[in-house]
TrEMBL record:
InterPro entries named in the record: Ankyrin_rpt, Ankyrin_rpt-contain_sf
UniProt cross-references to Gene3D superfamilies, sorted A to Z: Ankyrin repeat-containing domain (1.25.40.20)
PANTHER family registered for this protein in UniProt: ANKYRIN REPEAT DOMAIN-CONTAINING PROTEIN 39-RELATED
Origin species: Desmophyllum pertusum
Keywords: ANK repeat, Repeat
Protein name stated in the entry: Uncharacterized protein
ANK repeats mapped onto the chain: 330-362
UniProt keyword annotation of Cell division present: no
Top-level taxonomy: Eukaryota, Metazoa, Cnidaria, Anthozoa, Hexacorallia
Amino acid sequence: MVTKRHRSRNYPSPEYCILDMVNAHLKMKQRRTWTINLALRTANQMFKSSNPFDSQDLVEGDIMAVCCYFGFFFMSGYKYRQSRAVLKRLDELNVLKIGIKDEMEQFPSLITNVKDLKRKKELENLITVYDEEIQFLDQNYDIVKCNIWVRQVSEIQNKCRAMVAEKIVQRFDVVKVPRITTINDLAVDMIINLSLTCGTGFYSSKMHETVWKGRKLVLRDKETGEFFDDFSGNTDQKETVRQMLGLEEEQVVELSGDNSKYEIYFESSSRNKTLKAGSWFLYQIFPGTTLQCQRLLFKAAKTGELDTVQKLVAFFNADNSFIKSKEHGSGNTALHMACRHGHFDIVLYLLENGADIDMSNNHHNTPFSLATESLQKRSVSFLLNGERTR
């Protein structure tokens, strides 16, 4: 006998549920103040909101205000998805109607076959149903505005991708210290992730700072805004930071933060370092190489995450070497992994976007070899036919 389950009355309020959702996202790995602020600005543009909300407001803002703000975005996001669904359905209906009309044109002007007469009647009924659905969508949604909105969002997304691509090249972000505080408190208040700078960061100083061997420095060109360092993996830099400042590598010096050509940021040895109000704090937000993104690509190709593969390849479409990058240990490319594990949709997408079908791994195996070994018949057949048509 199934007993009736009693519902608890101790449910949290709706605003705390929303707040938990927000906090869950903020606590996710690799979240940074720059990333969060970019997401908030992009959402403001997508949903036509002029509210100057930033990452610090999420920490210090009133609970109800934060909940109302995100409630607005959740509802706007739902409305946007609804607009996209309407446009997608309209396209589907128009394609279906074209297919039906093409089929109806195949019938002779005088139909004597009962089967053909029945089929023609079915097609006419389908067209009526599709026309009614199209009419319903036209009456209940502003199709013109939906099209404009989706197009605008696509442009905003492209601008966002361009900003991220530019920041990947820069690698660092600089924030102004709002008040006297420690690095640790600043990281908490502004949701700054210091994992790429080994748990600490860099600060500007108008005083003389002692620079010894091993103490890291970051320079920023005052004219171009370009960053220079010796640790992030930037391969385009020809000189070390010390050479750029005219210092010997082993020399211990008192270095002034006031330089005519560069902004100088000094590594802090402790998160308890006190920062002055109005000074600048620098931290790393992207690695100097694409190795981390390559690992994500390999993992996605191996586990069949097509959406992740598409986003990574689209983002690095200007870098032809990214899709051909090899895993360090095995020498496998993403195409090797997709072929071995039978993810045909990923195989197809990678080949359409420049993956090399003839590239060998460290054991001299091509993607075709791995697909054959793993008995991935669909991939093998496709790769064979591709070879014949080349």
